[in-house]
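To whoever picks this up:

The nightly regression suite flagged FAD-binding domain-containing protein as changed. Nothing in the input moved, so I suspect the structure step. Input below, exactly as stored in the fixture:
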Amino acid sequence: MSSNSAATNQKDVLVIGAGPGNLALAQILRKHDIPFQIFERDDKIDPRRQGWSFALIEALHELPPLISDDLGDIHTTSVNHNIGVNKDTMTIVQAASGQIMAVLGNRLPDEPGHLIRGDRQRLREYFSQHLDLQVGKIFSHYEEDAEGVTAFFTDGTSARGCMLVGGDGLRSKVREQLLAGYTEPDAAKLEPSQWIPIFGQCELSREQFEPIHDFSSAGILAAGPTIRYMIGPREIQADRSSASYYWAGAYASQGETQSEWAAEAEWVQNATRQELFDRSKKLTENFAPFLTKIIDYTGVEGMLTRPPRFIEYVSPRQLPRGRVTLLGDAVHTMVPFRGQGANTAIRDACDLGRLLIKAGGVPQAPEDLLQEYASNILPRGREMVLSSRASGQQLQGVLAATKGRVDTFVGAGSPPSGVIPLAGAHA
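Regenerated output under the current build:
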């Protein structure tokens, strides 16, 4: 536990932040009796800040052997769990024509290519089980010495451990300190993305949501020359009477510089619901009708004001040697077009967890172990950030992102006739 004065001779792993990767790491450590403390700055997490749901694909196969069975079945976190659907499916289509380009998932849990589209809040609750998550702990700084590392918080408390993992997100304070004055150029530089997101959410009746769900149970991804668009379920009532859905559109700024991109993102941040609705209608006016009816269902009142911005952070090529390391968005922040943000964070946790398990816990001098960890995650993180960017830049990039993850590829397929148009629109 944290205290007003740092404890001595601690063997704990200090975990800063409680995102999916850090929670997964905590569960790995818990199963293998490796002592740790985990700290979260917020008292309550709003899942909309980071998106409503995310797909578990590669991480779904790496993580389960490393965590305890007492967490239960991870499939209970699926957006389709309430209705007993056990084959989550994501479908990629061309925005204008509606042609099916690729299908991800559509596999049973024991089949290769299986995925879970997990509700973010359910996943958070799943990974938080049996953890002493210390909330309201705003990280200030750390001090490292030959015997260990001490984390300090703004409430005046501190915690002592043998190593510290900074998984405190995009604007990581741990990264800021770790890479301060680092010799690698731009090692800690955040870059605004050219892509500007807009979000909406709505409640749909059975006749409204079933055509979408029957077409693709866990979500639809649409790609056009300058826009990426997704429709996905958050929760479906067990009797299928209604469902909560969201949609997200990201359009490419026509500005030529990062400052122009940032200015356009600022406009979206300050826009009214009506302005966001009008912009969304204009951006999707040439889309296949079955993709845009949900915007009408959403209406002005369902637009999300002050949507999160897309920021990128390309992993450095190495991390300083010591007792402090990084995980997840703190070390690689990507646009969501490849669906790899949470997957990569959880894979980071698996990599670090396996090394600690192999070592029998945290070594008294963990520097070599953390350098090996960094050598595993940094190249992957760089590749994921850059390939996610490429997925935004061209349609072929979107399709390339499905390599090794695709159930079906259809070069000129079409949505089922029953999907166009959606039935039952009402104000």
